[in-house]
Amino acid sequence: DAFAYACVVPAYFQVVVGGLNGPIHTAVLVSAKKGEVEDGASTRRLIESLSTWLAVPAAALALALFCFPGRVLRVFAPGLCGAGSALELSIAQEQVRIMSPC
């Protein structure tokens, strides 16, 4: 169960960002194709700025997950913080720290 709880936030982020062929990837490709017809330099600037704007929140989320796994688990998995589940909570916190860069 600890692994399932630890996967909640990274899995949610994966759904939102979508990875390859996800919503952000598709939007960038459509924008790049339109810009490619007009100007290749503007397409490059668009992709660089989007990459920066996506990397900053992703890094902030990874840092928050690494530094505050207990608080994050209390929000996303309130049932894990009950009596008698201290070992499971500890395991889930370590797994969140391990998966935070993902």
UniProtKB/TrEMBL annotation:
The chain crosses the membrane at residues 50-68. It comes from Chloropicon roscoffensis. Keywords: Membrane, Transmembrane, Transmembrane helix. This is Uncharacterized protein.
